[in-house]
Amino acid sequence: MYEVLDNSRLKEIQETIAELEKKIDSFIATEDDRSKHDVTKLQANASLEEICNAVWDCGSDKSSSPNGFSFLFLKRNWEYFKDDVDIFVTQFMESGSFPKRTNSEFITLIPKVKNPLLIKDYRPILLIGMQYKIVAKLLENRLASVIDKFVNPVQSTFITDHQILDGPLIVSEVIDWYKKRNKKLMIFRVDFEKAFDSVSWTYLDYVLSQMGFGDSWR
Q1: What is the SS3 assignment for 154?
Q2: pLDDT per position as a tens digit, 178-198
Q3: Which of 120, 149, 178 is the last residue of a domain?
Q4: Inside any domain, residue 189
Q5: Rounded CA gap, 133 and 127, in Å?
Q6: pTM score of the predicted model
Q7: Is residue 56 domain-shared with residue 20, that is, in the same domain?
Q8: Is position 13 within any domain?
Q9: Across-strand partners of 107?
Q10: Which stretches make up the Reverse transcriptase domain (predicted)?
Q11: 26 and 46 fall within a common domain
């Protein structure tokens, strides 16, 4: 059964829709402001406590730096090095760049197959300085606190509490659901070889700048 709308009723509905549109626009603007505020916080200088947390989040028994020192050494002697580390991180946050050779690294090739013949059969392992790792971990920790503002909740990898296996499990459940109901289903699987090397860095830099990320993030 359909309701016949007179002009007054139609006008009332139109006004209601217009009011809802205003509220939605206001909500979106507020969310944008919140996101920009969150990004602004990411640019702030780090406290010594935050730097300390980043250091302790780095594995003590990971590969040593090119100079031979590991994070275990740094942690055990933190009182002697904390001021220097604080100065280094502060300079990076203010300038958005590292001193020359800070991010220099040694590359070791690890075979991925039993009898490697091609370059792609090797996996490069990098030995990189602790300073670089500390800054990377600090930025990672900060980004984790706001990542939900920028990444769709269905993203199943590289997000805290999300697992890469979530995707295959969901696909398996969907296939099973269609099979039980004898329904047709088409699944389209796409995989990009060397996807990281195929990224348009110019476009990525543009997107980050539009989101409000400063030089220290780009």
Answers
A1: coil
A2: 888 888 888 877 776 666 777
A3: 149
A4: no
A5: 10
A6: 0.61
A7: no
A8: yes
A9: 126
A10: 111-214
A11: no
Cβ atoms of 43 and 92 within 8 Å: the answer is no
38-81 per-position pLDDT tens digit: 666 777 788 889 999 999 988 877 666 666 678 888 888 899 98
What are the structure tokens assigned to 50, written together? Answer: 């935050």
Number of Cβ atoms within 10 Å of the Cβ of 56: 14
In the chain, the number of structural domains is 2
- Token pair 């920009």 is found at 36
The partner residues of 125 in beta bridges, in order of sequence, read 108
Do residue 49 and residue 17 come from a single domain? no
| Amino acid residing at 111 | P
Taking CB atoms within 8 Å and a gap of at least 24, the contacts of 171-176 are none
Q: Are residues 60 and 120 in the same domain?
A: yes
CA distance 96 to 194: 28
- Please, are residues 75 and 56 in contact by the beta-carbon 8 Å criterion? yes
Nearest by Cα to 146 from 51, 26, 44:
44
Residue 119: domain span: 42-149
Per-residue tokens: 149: 């503002």
